[in-house]
Amino acid sequence: MNQDLSIWILVQNASLVVQLVMLLLVMISMASWAAIFRKLFSLGKVKSLNDNFEREFWSGSSLNDLYAAAAKNARTAGPMERIFASGMREYQKLRERRITDPGTLMDGARRAMRASFQREMDVVETHLSFLASVGSVSPYVGLFGTVWGIMHAFTGLAALTQVTLATVAPGIAEALVATAIGLFAAIPAVVAYNRFARDIDRTAIRLETFIEEFSNILQRNVGSQSASGH
Length: 230
What we know:
By secondary structure, this protein is an all-alpha fold. 85% of the residues lie in helices and 0% in strands.
C-alpha cells in the first residue's frame, strides 16, 4: 500500500487536468527559485558597490576626481555612484551655462539625482512583483488542482456499490499532491519577497540619505564659490 501511495505513483495516476496543474506549479517553482537566486546575487552586488563608493566618497577625494572616475566606470558603477554622477553632471552643465544662482544650481542637481534614483530603484525592484504573484497565486492554483482531482475521484466512485477508505484514499491523495506542490512553490517566494522588500527599503533609505548629504556638500560649494566671486 505504501508503494502504491508514493508521490510518484500518485502523480502518475492523477487525472490529466491535475497533472497539468502540477506541471505548471513545478515550472513556476523553478522560475521562482531562479528569480530568488538572481535577486539575491544582484542585491548583494548593489550593496557591495554602494559600500565601495561611499567609502571612496567620504575618504576625502575631490568631487571632480570622483566624477571623472564615475564617468570612466559608468558601465560597472553602482546605484549610488550613478546618482552622484547625475547630480554632478547637471551641476557642471549649469555652471558651464554661467548660471550662478545657488537655488537654480541646487534644484537642477537635486532633480537630476531624484530622476536617477527612480531609475535605479526600478532596476533594483525587478522580479519582485513576480515573487509576490507566485506567493499569492500558487496556493490557489494548487487548490484548483485539488478540487478538480477530488471531483474526478468522486465521479469515479459513483459507479461503485461499496465505498471504503481504501477506495477513496488514492483519489484524494492524488488531488492533495497539487496543493502540496502549490505550497512548495508559494512559501519560498513569500519568504524571499519579504526579505528582499526589507533589503530594498534599506537601499532606498540609504540612497535618499546620500542624496541629501551630497546636496548639502554641493550647497556649501555653491555658497563658497558665490562668496569668492563677490
